[in-house]
Amino acid sequence: MKHTDYTLPEFTFFEATSHLGNPLEGRDVLQHIRSYTILEIIALDSVMLMDFSKSQTHEFEYKNIVGIIEKHLFVLHFTLAESDELPEIFAKCEAFYKDYLTWEDNNLLNQAIHESN
To answer: Which listed residue, 10, 38, 42, 103, has the most CB atoms within 10 A of its CB?
Structure first.
């Protein structure tokens, strides 16, 4: 019998696939578990004009594996954190998401190398 550790991770992505379909299809939503903060991640290079002026946001850049700088935006959906805690939470989420993007870039590179052999 396998021992399961039921401790939740610090971050998780929302996966909304169910018998009702996937209402988050094509969207990336991240939760910082410890602060109950839910952020939507917007790739600014791939969206048309959108008005996020009524939401708290955090913009950041990621230099991908081929050297292209991608602009991203976190849009705050929900949090139980105090407003003075949000800059630190945004920074933690940004670091986590950049690590995720690097991991994805490396997976794509490894897949391309594997397919070319």
So the answer is: 42
Q: Is 28 exposed, middle or buried (0-12, 13-18, 19+ CB in 10 A)?
A: middle
H helices then E strands: how many in the chain?
1, 5
Q: Please, which residues have CB within 8 angstroms of residue 37's CB and are 6 or more apart in sequence?
A: 31, 76, 78, 79, 80, 81, 86, 89, 93
Q: In one letter, which amino acid is 34? A: R
Predicted confidence at residue 74, as pLDDT, reads 98
Question: What's the predicted TM-score (pTM) here?
Answer: 0.90
- For position 69, what pLDDT does the model report? 97
Residue type, 80: L
Q: Please compute, for residue 60, the number of CA atoms within 13 A of its CA located in the half-sphere on the CB side.
A: 19
Provide the CA 42 distance to its chain's centre, in angstroms: 9
